[in-house]
Design goal:
mainly alpha, 19 helices, elongated, Rna Polymerase Sigma Factor, Chain: A, 432 residues
């Protein structure tokens, strides 16, 4: 194998196996820093040896063996690591103590067991700040480097590196257990994990700042993380609901911006560009998630997204059913955002005046640009351009990314008499 092909293969294995390798090493050694260091050394060793020796039959097991040997060497040479390991052996998970002479963590057929579920719950532990949970999940489970995670947050790499270091220190000093919550605690801890993945995807769907509306890299990582979690917890309906939601929304990605990068509203999107394979996969997951009891908030949002994806146009969308689903969602997980999206759906059923009346009752979203943009659009439809212009200006004061800013600027011009451009009504969050 050529050096270039070997490097590409190592990269592919790295992307697929990094989280599993890291999780297995953390389980064995109880130290995230040590696990990251030896996992990186194993990848570097693969880049050196695979072009010469060929790719092993079980590359993940090869990486684990190399990493484990490197960990043994470090622990024997480094007194600080050795002292930390001794402490962990006494006070950590006594059922699975780390040992220098323990056998490689592999199954009988040489495969590496999947320990990532433990890592999910460690990275998303409620004792950590939410931003740290997201950063650690991207770093440890998605395999992003510190600079890549920094780009996701639009902060300097040094800032993100410090943030991750503090999160790891918190895990160590608070002795956050590296384990899956028991059956009684799982229902309380799982929503935190789902929320982290959802927030990663939300940032990809409409970037908070910057020149792009959609962050393809974050969308793909969020979906990959959701797929991993679904494989590990296939029996949990709300996990299926989250994956369904992400797939059904992401299916529209290619149509959400023009070739020039401008925002394209749901009403104007070329539905031929929607990914039908993702839609069908998402719809099947929704059916599964809706069976067996009251649906959770992600499942309900996925059902709404499915109605949008199934419709041939805005006009043929089953808006009464969308409103009904928002009614259920509002009872299960009430929030101002749910109320905002419900108001948009009501406006499609009963007219802009009905939607505007609901918006006027909302509280807690004054700093959210889409509230003012939606209100401006309803005012525009009602023939109240001066009030619409005021609302568009408020939205422009709050908006972050450039495509939405450009869109709102054009809308403001249309109601201010500067331009006669006419566009379709603003549709909130496209059913999110």
């Amino acid at each position: 194998m050529s050096e270039r092909r070997a490097a590409d293969y190592v990269e592919a294995v790295f992307r697929e196996e990094w989280g599993r390798l890291l999780a297995t090493l953390v389980r064995q050694w109880g130290d995230l820093d040590l696990a990251e260091e030896v996992a990186s050394d194993a990848v570097a060793s693969a880049l050196q040896h695979w072009p010469v020796d060929g790719v092993p039959t079980r590359p993940a097991a090869w990486l684990l063996t190399v990493a484990r040997r490197r960990a043994v060497d470090l622990l024997r040479r480094d007194r600080a690591y050795a002292a930390r390991l001794a402490l962990l052996q006494v006070e950590a998970d006594r059922a699975e103590p780390a040992r220098l002479d323990s056998a490689p963590l592999e199954t009988d057929d040489g495969e590496v067991p999947d320990e990532r579920l433990r890592l999910f719950f460690t990275c998303c532990h409620p004792a950590l700040p939410l931003e740290a949970q997201i950063a650690l999940t991207l770093r440890c489970l998605a395999g992003l480097t510190n600079p890549e995670v920094a780009r996701a947050f639009l902060v300097p790499p040094a800032t993100m590196a410090q943030r991750i270091v503090r999160a790891k220190r918190k895990i160590r000093d608070a002795r956050i257990p590296y384990r899956i919550p028991d059956a009684e605690a799982l229902p309380y801890r799982l929503p935190g994990v789902l929320r982290v993945i959802y927030l990663i995807f939300t940032e990809s769907y409409a970037a908070s700042t910057g020149p792009e509306l959609v962050r393809d890299d974050l969308a793909e990582e969020a979906i990959r993380l959701a797929r991993i979690l679904h494989r590990l917890l296939s029996g949990h309906r709300e996990v299926a609901g989250l994956l369904a939601l992400l797939l059904l929304i992401d299916a529209r990605r290619a149509a959400r911006t023009s070739p020039a990068g401008e925002l394209v509203l749901l009403a104007d999107q070329d539905r031929e560009l929607w990914d039908r394979a993702l839609i069908e996969e998402g719809r099947a997951l929704v059916v599964t998630a809706l069976r067996g009891g009251a649906p959770g908030p992600y499942t309900l949002q996925a059902a709404i997204a499915a109605l949008h994806d199934e419709a041939a146009s805005i006009a043929t969308t089953d808006w009464p059913q969308v409103v009904a689903l928002y009614d259920v969602l509002g009872s299960v997980a009430p929030s101002p955002l749910v109320a905002l999206n419900r108001a948009v759906a009501v406006a499609m059923v009963d007219g802009p005046a009905a939607g505007l009346a609901l918006l006027d009752e909302l509280a807690g979203l004054d700093a959210y640009h889409l509230l003012h943009a939606t209100r401006a659009d309803l005012l525009r439809q009602l023939g109240r351009p001066a009030e619409a212009a005021t609302a568009y200006r408020r939205a422009l004061d709050l908006v972050g990314n450039d495509p939405e800013r450009s869109f709102l600027t054009r809308r403001l011009a249309s109601v201010s008499g500067v331009s006669d451009c006419q566009m379709e009504p603003f549709r909130g969050q496209d059913g999110l």
